[in-house]
Amino acid sequence: MKLARSIQACGKPEMGCVLTIGNFDGVHRGHREVVRGLVERSRKMGLPAILMTFFPTPQEYFRAEEAAPRLTSLTTRYLYLKDSGIDTLIALPFNRSLAQTSAEDFILEYIVEGLNTRFLMAGHDFRFGSRRRGDYAMLKSFGLDHGFELTRCTTVEEAGGRISSTRIRQALNDGDLKLAERLLGRRYEIIGRVQHGDQRGRRWGFPTLNLPFMHKPPMFGVFAVRVDIDAQMHEGVANLGARPTVDGERILLEVHLFDFSQEVYGRRVRVEFIQKIRDEQRFDSFDALKQQIAEDCKTAQLIHKSG
Questions:
Q1: 67 phi and psi angles, rounded to 5 deg
Q2: Which of the chain's ends, N or C, has fewer CB atoms near its CB within 10 Å?
Q3: Residues 6 or more apart whose Cβ sits within 8 Å of residue 282
């Protein structure tokens, strides 16, 4: 699957394309059903399947710190989609220019002229263009005039409601990792590269793999986790948050693996969240924090043993 950062980098498909547009944050079961339908249609029409997304998301651009937490980075979205049958993932930078583009101009410049779209799948609540004026009805009208077919994306329901990124964020925030797993179709996980930390955990006897965050996570706390390193699974315990006892500012995922001593700096790892142990909290001393970490390790080991 090709990754393009602009319409120009994608290249205009001579015979046209099959297109869908959205944030696809989380690449959950509902998203995967959309992708399945898109790829199926592209094969029937003999045209490339293109998925357009945005980075940052429009909400992150307009609301900054007040934006909803992100479930997945762009890299993670790419990894989830790369074997789906999608031919090109277009990740458009959502900037001032795009934010000020009218809905009509967006259709003409990106969907019609830019990608020569012949078939478009749009979500039931898809809004676009300056002041979010664009909607399904506008797409339908332009499709009739410019020769592209339009259909609504299929919705998938689970546990009494529509699967959505918003619902998954709420489940994670509530500590309901089982519901999040049902909605995602897999356990919630974070994929990233291990970086050097301050070595405090190593000095205390609890060395950690450190994955820094450039955005707000959908949940905070201490968790039992499993970590995939080069296709080998390792059990451990993790703290996801701002470490209030240490500095309380920088958001970090710190993972302590049991019976593990390898150096993996710079390696990409996948951290799978099994069960929440407790909320993140501030301790009066480092000794109290070290004692709690030891207790968290024991709790996590019991969770892993229970299956």
A1: -70, 155
A2: C
A3: 244, 245, 248
What is the identity of the amino acid at 289? L
| One-letter identity of residue 52 | M
User: What does the block give as tokens for 245?
Assistant: 């006892």
Q: Confirm if 136 and 144 have CB atoms less than 8 A apart.
A: no
Question: What is the value of pTM for the model shown?
Answer: 0.93
pLDDT of 77-127, one tens digit each?
A: 999 999 999 999 999 999 999 999 999 999 999 999 999 999 999 987 899
Residue 246 has pLDDT above 80, yes or no: no
CA distance 239 to 304: 16
SS3 content of the chain, % helix, strand, coil (to 5): 35, 25, 35
CA atoms of 88 and 82, how far apart (whole Å):
9
Measure the CA–CA gap between 33 and 156, rounded to whole angstroms.
Answer: 8
- Cα 38 to Cα 19: distance, rounded to the nearest angstrom: 7
